[in-house]
Amino acid sequence: MLILSTLTVCVGLMLVPLATSIVHIAIVLAVVVGPALGISSVLSKVLLGRHFNKRYTLASGISQMGQVVSLLAFAPMTQLFLDTYGWRGAALLLAGVCLHSVVCPVLVKEEKERYETPPDQHDHKETNSTGMTRVKSFFAHALSTVDLRILREFNFWIVFTCICGARFPGNAWFLFNVSHLQAKGFSPQTSAALCSAASVGYLVGCVMFSPLVDRGFLKCSTGVLISSLLLTLSLAIDPFLHEAWSIAVFTALFGLSSSALYALTDVLTKELLGRERLTSAFAWIGALGVPAKLLAGFLPGWLYDSSGSYDLAFIIMGASPTVAAIPLVIGKFWKEI
């Protein structure tokens, strides 16, 4: 399935140059590329969680490094494609680059459990089943596949709030931080350079907690709480920073804490919900987390248009990880997570 979704992304990008209007591009991205990317994201996390029982925190952190590496590499590369070949040629080249990632799921060896059919069930036929029974059986199987019961578990909502508390400020920061720094009086070049400090912290944060968590010196839930508090600090203090060096320091802290939180929340998902439920867990988290992503792209800009400053937006962004960690704190005292 991961191979198919990756190929679908490539096909979608190859269809973009054939578009004759912006509506065609929007349809391709929304119907073909977007869903395929979502499926790929979920399944890649599931494969990682199922293949690493030991040192899973380290594996999760290394996987998060790919985001910052791709961000640093693809931004100038895409601009080069646009300047050289135009947007149609750039889309085709990006499809070709994406096609190389098909090799990764091809090389994955997934161990499948083998079941032996009992002797008395080889030729079993449901001769007495009625149409209504079959319908009920179909819907029962569908509900078990969707795993709606996971939504009734407190552990799921612990993980969900922690992930949303990390993703909302992260997405908003990537969208609005350069504009925020320009509003503070920095030039576009300086603003971009200050943002690069986050990449340094991001690389460190990906593996910062892995030796402690993997060896049992630190609980994953405790690492999530520490990362949430650091992320809150890095954003909430931003309105009071005006010097370039101080902004660079706390920007690096933002990258460090956010990457650590991304890696640890995946580990926490496996710890609280189990290895076999990773697919449904990550799928539901991705689906229910869409409003938070939309809010991240809307709220800071709206607050800036209303007040003429991003300060309130960054304070709200900073508060969200700590507020989102409240269910985790309750769970630690109630269930000793």
Automatic annotation (TrEMBL):
Keyword Oxidoreductase: no
Domain of life: Eukaryota
Keywords: Membrane, Transmembrane, Transmembrane helix
Gene3D superfamilies: MFS general substrate transporter like domains
Matching InterPro entries: MFS (IPR011701), MFS_trans_sf (IPR036259), Proton-linked_MCT (IPR050327)
Regions crossing the membrane: 22-44, 56-75, 87-108, 154-176, 191-213, 220-241, 247-269, 281-304, 310-330
Record's keyword annotation contains Membrane: yes
GO molecular function: monocarboxylic acid transmembrane transporter activity
Descriptive protein name: Monocarboxylate transporter 12-like isoform X3
Lineage: Eukaryota, Metazoa, Echinodermata, Eleutherozoa, Asterozoa
Gene transcribed to yield this protein: LOC110976702
